[in-house]
Design a protein that fits this description.
Blueprint: H1 8-36, H2 45-56, H3 62-80, H4 83-102, H5 113-132, H6 141-151, H7 157-176, H8 179-201, E1 206-213, H9 216-226, E2 232-237, E3 244-252, H10 257-267, E4 272-278
Antiparallel strand pairs: 1-3, 1-4, 2-3
């Protein structure tokens, strides 16, 4: 079977994505090496476990710890989630793992742990946001959340990830023998989450996509199959042409827009997409109705 040659737009998009991943992973690695590790402050997720592992066995570099801890999760993701997800995530995990050891050469800040927590939180938030905004993930908690949500779909994804992070923070407090380490880790996670939300979501609560297409059923199936977002299909008619088509309405988080566009355009390159602000959204995956 002859492989299809990627067009210039796909190549350019891949270059842009890799640039974002490299810069984002570098900033995240600096936040860990220069501020978190020197002050015994764990991060959330697999990166937090890697810091704990490196503290116990410092002969194994932090980046190697991060890669090894992600491998079992990637294998499970390959089996239960899909090859496409694993391929991209494996590349980003590998990039981050290498950069964690490369940027370990930078000077470490060993001073006020509050300042260390603040800077670690801001930098890690910026770094992760740059990866997430491309529709990708750095592995770790996101894989754990997706796997557990697949096994227990009745449990909200956010709660699964929060529980895992709480477990990592507790473990770090025990290993570092310091309750304060857990408190500083909470500061890091809180700030990084706020930074990610600000960069990816902006001031609004989400985005609304209105998609005009001739392949409504196919696009809808792709969106619901590859994301956790629902779609409403509305029959429409062109005012000038009189041609009957379908309009898909879907509400997403801002960082999911790029991924949605890629999913849609793979099926219908001639589709018409309108993206607008959705400042207040109530329902599953967003705000709970009062």
């Amino acid at each position: 079977m002859k492989l299809k040659k990627p067009d210039k737009e796909q190549v350019w998009q891949l270059i842009k994505d890799n640039f974002m991943w490299f810069v984002g992973c570098s900033i995240y690695a600096i936040s860990i090496n220069s501020f978190a590790v020197p002050n015994d402050i764990a991060q959330s997720g697999i990166a937090g476990l890697a810091i704990v592992g490196n503290h116990l066995v410092d002969a194994i570099p932090l980046g190697v710890w991060n890669f090894l801890l992600n491998i079992p999760l990637l294998i499970l993701a390959w089996i239960f989630i899909g090859k496409a997800f694993v391929g991209k995530t494996l590349w980003i995990v590998s990039m981050l793992s290498v950069l964690l050891d490369v940027w370990a050469l930078l000077p470490a800040y060993e001073g006020d742990r509050i300042l260390a927590s603040l800077f670690s939180g801001v930098l890690s938030g910026i770094g992760l946001a740059m990866v997430l905004i491309t529709g990708a993930t750095s592995g770790g908690t996101d894989i754990v959340g997706r796997l557990l949500h697949k096994a227990f779909p009745h449990i909200p994804l956010g709660k699964v990830m929060l529980a895992f992070d709480a477990l990592v923070i507790t473990l770090a407090a025990v290993v570092f023998r310091s309750f304060e380490s857990a408190l500083y880790a909470v500061i890091v996670i809180f700030i990084s989450t706020k930074v990610i939300d600000t960069i990816n979501y902006g001031t609004g609560n989400g985005k609304m996509l209105m998609v005009i297409t001739d392949k409504g059923a196919e696009v809808s199936q792709a969106i619901t199959g590859q994301t956790q977002r629902g779609v409403t299909i509305i029959p429409v008619e062109g005012g000038y042409t009189g041609v009957e088509r379908q309009m898909l309405v879907c509400v997403v988080r801002a960082h999911e827009v790029s991924k949605m566009k890629k999913i849609i355009e793979k099926i219908d390159s001639q589709t018409f997409i309108i993206v607008s602000e959705a400042n207040e959204i109530h329902g599953k995956g967003f705000k709970k109705s009062i």
